[in-house]
Amino acid sequence: MFSRAARSWVLRTTGGGLGTRGTHSPGGSARSQGKMAPYYTNHYAQRSYPMPDEPYCTELTAEQQALKEKEKGSWAQLSQEEKVALYRLQFRESFAEMNRRSSEWKTVMGCVFFFIGLTGLLIWWQRVYVFPEKPVTLTDERKAQQLQRLLDMKSNPVQGLASRWDYERKEWKK
Amino acid sequence: MLPLARNARLQVRSNQQTMKRASDFHDKYGNAILASGSIFCITVWTYTATQVGIEWNLSPVGRVTLKEWRDQ
What we know:
The complex is a heterodimer.
Chain A: H1 2-14, H2 62-71, H3 80-90, H4 95-98, H5 104-129, H6 140-152, E1 165-166, E2 171-172
Antiparallel strand pairs in A: 1-2
Chain B: H1 2-19, H2 25-51
């Protein structure tokens, strides 16, 4: 209640200058030219802000004005199309429309994968130009020899490396 | 029964309106961006991980054949 009063006070006093939204295409007859209120105080309806202060359409044709006059009477006399038209004057989108799914995640994930791929290229470059010489102990031959030595020493025989080696058959345990 | 039918008609009308919504950037290009991004990522990383000479030092268990180390 208080915040709504504060908002309309802000509207009246701040006057000039468009808000941060800039030219984010209001579409149709959204805002009359005279009212240069900041957008953030008078957003389109959203799930978190379903009842904005201002209706979506403020510049009404004669036909629409006649409809607004009719709205002041009993709503039972309004036809279905008239009710929908009044809703469309008041709100930009229905809840179904504003809550619709989008394909934005595809663009997002595609760009995520692209940058991860770029990272891979970066690491390739690093391997070529930054990494030091590979130590001789990491060649396949030396690693095979180290493995034999570890098994000869029976390193980690309980749960580790040597426990995985079958000493009778001289092969890895299945 | 009657209010239900009325709601159904409203729903149908809004469905028609949502289906006519203009497709945005993500509808038009989202699939292509997702596909090309993932293919690029997979290709680059497969190549980098296997062909470039990076030592992953994977476990020898089940993989490495032994070689005698003692100098005789």
